[in-house]
Amino acid sequence: MQFLDHWSPRLLSVLRIVTAVCFMEHGAMKLLHFPAPMMPGPLPPLLTFAGVIELLGGALLLLGLFTKIAAFVSSGQMAIAYFGFHVLHGLGNAPGPVSFDPVVNHGTEAALESVIFLYLASAGGGAWAVDAIIQRRRGAA
Questions:
Q1: Is residue 123 part of a domain?
Q2: Helix/strand/coil (H/E/C) assignment for every residue in the chain
Q3: pLDDT band at residue 26, thresholds of 50, 70 and 90?
Q4: Which domain holds residue 36?
Q5: How many domains does the chain have?
Q6: For the segment 39-70, what is each residue's pLDDT rounded down to a tens digit?
């Protein structure tokens, strides 16, 4: 569909922005207890570190600033979350090996975010990214 080719850089930005907002929400739940706390009491250090990546990485991705680096780190974090937690333990299920299937292990979002962020690490942030604005200004100078 050639009529959409013109919109491709802008739709890449839309994908980046929507995914970043969803990613930031997980960090906000962990660190700011907003819109709801992730769990009662203090978080384990690994979840606190994940929350920092989600909040900071998500903010950078939302702006499209240092997109490729932020996306690469975020992709790695979500791959670790999927394979290290969802595949091995599931979410809300009994401990132990559950399933590789993301629907069964409740890891659909982690799997999707990992792949989307890996794509953004390769493709960049699209037309509506701070990185793109900086690059255009450098090209004009």
A1: yes
A2: CHHHHHHHHHHHHHHHHHHHHHHHHHHHHHHCCCCCCCCCCCCCHHHHHHHHHHHHHHHHHHHCCCHHHHHHHHHHHHHHHHHHHHHHHCCCCCCCCCCCCHHHHCCHHHHHHHHHHHHHHHHCCCCCCHHHHHHHHHHHC
A3: very high
A4: 7-140
A5: 1
A6: 888 889 999 999 999 999 999 999 999 999 99
